Amino acid sequence: MTQLKEYVKNEKEVKIVSKVRADYVKKYANFLIESGNIIDGAIVVDVPCGTGDMAKAISEKIAVDKFALIDLNKNMIDSAKKKIKNNATFIVGDAGDIGTLIDFRADTIICLNGFHQYISRQHGFLDGCGKHLKRKGRLIFDVSTRGLHDEYTKNLFHNWQWNVIALSKEYGIKAQLPVWPDKDILEKYRNMLSNNGLRVIAEKEFISYKTTVEVLSDAIIIPGRSRPWIPGLGYGKRKEILEKSMENSIEKLGKHKIEHNRIFFIAERIPDMYKTS
Ligand SMILES: C[S@@+](CC[C@H](N)C(=O)[O-])C[C@H]1O[C@@H](n2cnc3c(N)ncnc32)[C@H](O)[C@@H]1O
Asked: Residues enclosing ligand 1, CB less than 6 A?
């Protein structure tokens, strides 16, 4: 948990994240507005809000009545406060506690790049969302993964993980790269939604292809991203291990395009689950 709180440590790191996330915000803001049914006067929760850039982009397009921004990391909340000045509430808190962190009903809850990797109490989160959504309110979360349909990508990440573990061992460190969701994990999420008072009304997958250089840069550019993967080593050493291990994997498996999948789950509250308006 401490490591997650340290995803960014200071304003300089917040700025790096903001820059890295710019393309994502540009690419998906309209999609979220449309599929989240975000219209003028809406009450919207963004958790984890990160730097606040997506909420800012949405507020610039739609006259949202109220935005609640929640994140575990105070640096992120401080950043979000600078970006959204009106009609917003800012909460430093764990997404798993959403049931008690807010005391109003929302039209839309967005959970971007957080659900799979960052929220450990997923049931608590989904249950809280179900309770706080208005009737016909929507929860949207995305899951980012690699190689859902491509064997080379799957093998490369498997081999990379193995190499990172081996190289980290030389420093006496137990490394662990993220588990990228496969079809079974995605199915588990569908079931979790329905077990927590929500039903999936749509899913949308976006597929893109990256080079190994881009994949490495994604892993390295935000220092806080790799901090929990190779705990106990400084940024420079972690970077070295990530690069060297990727080199080894390419040597073994060749260098091809990497498939990147992003799946958005769009869910509504099951009407009779909670006796509210
Ligand atoms: C990859 S960022 C995603 C942020 C933002 N939604 C975006 O798309 O840029 C992950 C964020 O989750 C926050 N976080 C991690 N665990 C959390 C938790 N349990 N509850 C709330 N926020 C959490 C981190 O502080 C970080 O800001």
From this structure: 4, 7, 21, 48-50, 71-73, 76, 94-96, 112-114, 118-119
Pocket test for ligand 1, best of 72, 139, 141, 145 (most atoms within 8 A of CB): 72
Query: How many A from CA of 86 to the centre of ligand 1?
Result: 22
Q: How many domains does the chain have?
A: 1
Q: What is the C-alpha to C-alpha distance for residues 67 and 90, in angstroms, rounded to an integer?
A: 9
Find the domain containing 67 and state its range: 2-269
- Determine, yes or no, domain membership for 113: yes
Who's near 155: CB < 8 A, 6+ residues apart?
253
Q: What is the CATH number of the domain that holds 258?
A: 3.40.50.150
pTM > 0.90: yes or no: yes
pLDDT for res 5: 55
* pLDDT tens-digit map of 114-155: 999 889 999 999 999 999 999 999 999 999 999 999 999 999
